[in-house]
Amino acid sequence: MIKYPMTVQGAKALEEEHAHLTKVVRPKLSQDIGTARELGDLKENAEYHAAREQQGMVEARIRDIEGRIQNQVIIDVTSIPHTGKVIFGTTVEIANVETDDRVTYHIVGEDEADFKLGKISVGSPLARALIAKEEGDVVAVKTPGGVIEYEIVEVRHI
């Protein structure tokens, strides 16, 4: 059985998505299918087929979310003592050793990852390179443009 690590915020967002899909989207799609069915011949009824296809995708997502919720491992990094070590859920400021450009990333579960928001999946190459390292350590990360070295400037439990 696969376990899904999640931050507290990620677990809450997944619960909210599940509630929205089951309480708002699912009933609306059932209503849309009923309305489309009343339009007559189902063979050539584009509205009916589109609503059924959408319903299938929504039901698949609901099942996926339910499986993830059932197998989630919620990690509240704020309750873990700060040691300066990079672990799941920490926010890490790193500096490119060559250019001194600094970026901050929050290491999260795969469902929560959003690079534009500075949230990287624990399974990403960068996060895998950072995990278990400490403030002051230098890590080499293999990128499509070559190997880049980063120094871990600060690890925060927020």
Automatic annotation (TrEMBL):
Does the record carry Protein biosynthesis as a key word? Answer: yes
Q: Which residues form the Transcription elongation factor GreA/GreB C-terminal domain?
A: 83-156
One example of a Gene Ontology biological process annotation = DNA-templated transcription elongation
Q: Which PROSITE patterns match?
A: GREAB_1, GREAB_2
Q: Which residues form the Transcription elongation factor GreA/GreB N-terminal domain?
A: 5-74
Q: Which UniProt keywords apply?
A: DNA-binding, Elongation factor, Protein biosynthesis, Transcription, Transcription regulation
What is an example of a GO molecular function annotated in this UniProt entry? Answer: RNA polymerase binding
Question: What Pfam families does the record tag this protein with?
Answer: GreA_GreB (PF01272), GreA_GreB_N (PF03449)
Family according to the record: Belongs to the GreA/GreB family.
What name has this protein been given in UniProt? Transcription elongation factor GreA
Native species: Pseudomonas silesiensis
According to the entry, what is the taxonomic lineage of the organism? Answer: Bacteria, Pseudomonadati, Pseudomonadota, Gammaproteobacteria, Pseudomonadales
